[in-house]
Amino acid sequence: MKTILYKSEPVRGEHWQKLLADLAPEYRFVQWNSLDFSDGDPEIFAEVDYLVAWVPPENIAQRMPQLKVLFSVGAGVDQFDLTQLPASLPVVRMVEPGLTQGMVEYVTLAVLALHRDLPLYLQQQKQSLWKSHPVVSANKRRIGVLGLGELGQATLNMLKNFGFECHGWSRSGNTPEGVTGWAGVEQLPAFLSHCDIMVCLLPLTPQTRGMLNGELFARLPRGAALIQTGRGQQLVAEDLLAALDSGHLRASVLDVTDPEPLPLEDALWSHPGVWITPHIASQTQPETAVTALLANLQRYEQGQPMQGEIDKTKGY
What is the mean pLDDT of residues 9-36? Predict the structure, then answer.
């Protein structure tokens, strides 16, 4: 019997345990929080074949000598220190429809809210101010998505149904039908100039860390808005506040910050041009996540490529 060790949110782990017991009783499922570390590492570590984690433990090569694959419970792996993992250990990010659907819902909500000026009307409500503003039709609003992985493509496929002029940028230029594609660093300025509302869905890499900064904001049209659902370390918060205060940006929706949780005294909390949610845009759903995990385990055990396996030299 192969052993799966789960190291993440315990309540969600209980759902995983029940589902795996029904769908794949041939696997032994062990929750990290159920283990006894009073005398050092538990004996079960020597029998772990697959680790499912948000943040893996240190020294897993020594502590889990039988480990075959490390699975992330999230869509990204930037929370992993890839330099500390064995070169031969496959690392797989979560690709499952529940996570994708959640992101599509969140970004669509945020785009429509910014499109129809809901942040502005919320501020007016706080002032008891009854004042209307011109409505821009969807076909005159340009939406740009940074990052054209599975989440970015699914999001654009939804947004184009509203009649928005949709643009997408990636390093590779993999663009959905009906979307204007831009690729590479050379085309980034042109892409930015076509974004009335820009959505960041990029993974965190050395190239994207600090990418959402004053220089980038200056290339957006005046009055543009930002939706940040990538990673908190991509945003230079001081530059965002400056762009909002100058009027170059009109509003922003942030689901990720640096650090998380955001300190009580942080200026982002109280700025009228900022909406904040606590990293809830998209969460792995147990039912679809377990199905995705089992499909990948089958692929691995049959010697086939796994969906979501990353290139550790690139970090994604």
Answer: 96
